Input
Amino acid sequence: MQAPTPGVVYGLQKGKGSNYETVQKQVSDSNDLIFDFTVEAKHGDNGKIILHGPFTQGTPQDRFVYIDIGTYAGQKDSQWSRRLKIPLAGIETKLLDTLSSNQILQCKIPGAGKDGTPNCATVKPFGGWEARSSQ
Output
């Protein structure tokens, strides 16, 4: 997450609905934040992959992960109660097949909107996922 709003807690949502916890909580100081998580992939009936696991949200055709922000991340004194939806779209068999054993997928997302407040809803612009070395 690039240049998030300073003084705000951000965290990765694990679980769904009201049965979730926020993990990897970080207070922003304007520096970039990194969230590491694993999703599992299995082949669906139509030949496309289905991503699943404790961090995935949404339908099998429209998976995403949430970054909880402010009160949603447990920051009781925050004026912000937001979630940022990061699409898992674009992670397909073709991309996974190109990964070597020492690579991971990453995406870069803006942490703040044009007005400087925490970015929320579906992340825009979203440049997609790309492979990089895990070291």
